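User: Hey, quick favor. My workstation is busy. Could you predict this chain's structure for me?
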Amino acid sequence: MYKILVVDDERSMRELLERVFSRQGYTVRVADNGSLAIQMLKSSFFDLVISDVRMPGLSGMELLQLCREVSPDTVCVLMTAFATIASAREAFKMGADDFIQKPFDIDELKVVVAKALEKSRLRQENALLKRELKDRGKIENIIGHSRAMQEVFKMLHDVASTASTVLIYGESGTGKELIARAVHNLSPRSNAPFVSVNCGAFTETLLESELFGYVKGAFTGAQTNRKGLFEAANGGTIFLDEISEMTPAMQVKLLRVLQEKKVRPVGSVEEIPVDTRVVAATNRDLAQMVEEKLFRHDLYYRVNIIQIKLPPLRERKEDIPLLAEHFLKKFAASAGKQIDSVSEEAMRYLENYDWPGNVRELENAIERAVAFEQSRQIQPERLPETILKYSPSRLRTYFSLPEEGIDLEKYLSELEKTFVLEALRKTMGNQTKAADLLRLPVRSLRHLLDKHKIRHTASMLREGIDKN
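Assistant: No problem, here it is.
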């Protein structure tokens, strides 16, 4: 519900506007002078201020100026019976969002107010988006309490204060840009721009003009000068994602920029000094690419000064419940649903899966589950089939024992439970058939159901719930 503040020294005008806009469903407050209005703006946020220009004491113009200082996201509409082109121009120059002359038609004023409130909404959404983009890079919003992620956090704190180039290694979906933003936000450059570019999304010619800019007439269609992303990020950070996809010619040009700290726009003979920190990322082995002569060794040594390796989600499965809870809160709030948690059984499926798409795939899975869930707890049948049908018995060529080791007893117990659940799912909860698949007596299967507290699952599957 929008909040409107009406400011006018005429009682009849205040009462009229309060009555009109209250009937439209807005929350309306009134003030008979500018000083009182400023006090009200300091104590509460208003989406819109409608103020007369001529008032005793603080004028509407002065109120407008103070409103811009106290509440810059509030939109302001000024009213006056003495409108001139000069006064209207002055009002807009001082930041008024609209200007209307008394006496006015009420329907006309309603249109003006509707447009002003739409501007208020867009302004607030824009401010929220900017805050969200900045917050995404804060280290406290990178989720993970595993040892692997704690090492990443420590590395971030260690390298952020330096000006050195950073190379982030990680599979697709591990959050490389999030880490790059954290490097920037923790650094002394945090108030300067952070600019991101996917090097694999452009042809060589387009990437050069994106990174370094161009001058008018440099090529067909270059009708004006354009600043490149290195120059746009001057004083801040540029994130070169998928740097491994650069062509050999672009690698040479990037190397020169890193060495000389200057860029040359396409079509120009002049070089422009830049002070831009480079954070690069790749999901490929650059050292191997150097050996295969696919990546320049001199550029490799330039970008690989500080290296941060992001672990895939399958190597930090203890973070899955934390991540799942985070995404659940995010999407449940967005969908307006009261979903409190992920059920224990659904969480087992999440923890059993190997997540080739990493955190991004987990986020998508939770978003899908929230969309279909009707209860207050995410159930297994809401998860994607790829997760439900995943078999841990398949050979994993990438499997390796974590450096910190594993709790073998717990791991084997979870593996046992996974196979029992999979057998039940394949047989639609038929315990006799499930026992046959597992080469077990039915009595032994029932013992496992009690051991892992999943006896109810067989009943649910028997009733065909997983088909919903």
